[in-house]
Specification:
Layout (H helix, E strand, L loop, with lengths): L2 E9 L7 E11 H17 L16 H16 L3 E9 L2 E3 L4 H5 L1 H12 L14 E8 L5 H12 L2 H4 L4 E2 L5 E4 L5 H17 L15 H20 L17 H4 L2 E6 L4 E3 L9
Length: about 280
């Protein structure tokens, strides 16, 4: 039988204080999708969380419920039934000689690189002869229909890259979805938001005119720490701000249940003045 995988993908902060262009994805076997989604939705209902789960909705009132749901979600990550990938760009790595077109299409160009490389799809079928089908579901894309359609065309063209290992994408399997209807996408949004929150020092923000943090900021900081605790159960001393190491095995691009990728363009230089330490 053919293997089928689904990637749920979304983006978050395009411009941050220290890190920008956040992209996140969750990959799951299509055969397990219905059951895992049902289990997650059931857990969500048990917690009386009837609205969409989003990082922006984290508050002191709902903190314990979000923690319980995310811990439950990470059980699937730890067992490698859901693979999570997070990509971002460090502002201090300044790209050089970008064309005007590259600057205008930055959002989609980086999204393309994220889908192409972050999950290690080209390593998912090295020993198998059976065909693998890849489905890609994007949270609603924010640009014009024409530009969105053009982007999906580039994703379809990844067949030329993936087909070497008998991995294929069909046009009808590249779709935009509403995150309200996809619990896995919602949980991934929380993880993605937490990484942006911490990497851009939002956990240190104070209430204007005071020397203390707001209740929502404190709640988000606690949820971030819970997420990091889960990640470090997989990888002790995990550093969220750098690309996850391969541990001398390039196929870990695919094998690992959780990875970060700090994207660096080929022509870039490091500007220390744009780092946290310079401040």
């Amino acid at each position: 039988m053919k293997k089928q995988y689904v990637i749920y993908a979304d983006e978050s902060h395009r411009k941050g204080k220290y890190f920008s262009n956040f992209y996140g994805g969750a990959l799951i076997s299509y055969s397990a999708l219905e059951k895992i989604s049902k289990d997650l939705n059931q857990k969500k209902e048990e917690l009386n969380l009837f609205q969409e789960i989003k990082w922006t909705k984290v508050t002191e009132q709902y903190l314990d419920k979000y923690i319980e749901l995310i811990n439950y979600f990470f059980e699937y990550v730890k067992s490698n039934k859901i693979k999570i990938r997070i990509m971002f760009r460090q502002n201090a790595l300044v790209p050089q000689n970008l064309t005007r077109e590259q600057e205008e299409k930055e959002y989609f160009l980086l999204y393309y690189q994220f889908i192409k490389h972050s999950f290690g799809i080209d390593y998912c079928n090295l020993k198998e002869k059976n065909q693998v089908i890849l489905k890609v579901y994007f949270d609603k894309l924010p640009d014009t229909k024409k530009k969105n359609r053009e982007f999906k065309g580039y994703i379809y063209a990844l067949n030329d890259f993936f087909c070497l290992n008998n991995v294929h994408i069909y046009n009808e399997d590249i779709a935009e979805v509403d995150s309200k209807n996809h619990i896995i996408l919602q949980c991934m949004d929380v993880i993605l938001g937490a990484m942006n929150f911490k990497l851009n020092d939002m956990d240190k923000e104070k209430i204007p005119g005071s020397n203390r943090r707001g209740k929502r900021t404190i709640a988000k900081a606690k949820l971030y720490k819970e997420i990091l605790k889960n990640i470090r159960q997989l990888y002790p001393r995990f550093n969220i701000g750098i690309s996850t190491g391969l541990r001398n095995d390039i196929t870990n691009h695919w094998n690992d249940p959780y990875r970060h990728w700090c994207f660096k363009s080929k022509n870039s230089y490091f500007d220390f003045k744009l780092t946290k330490k310079s401040k």
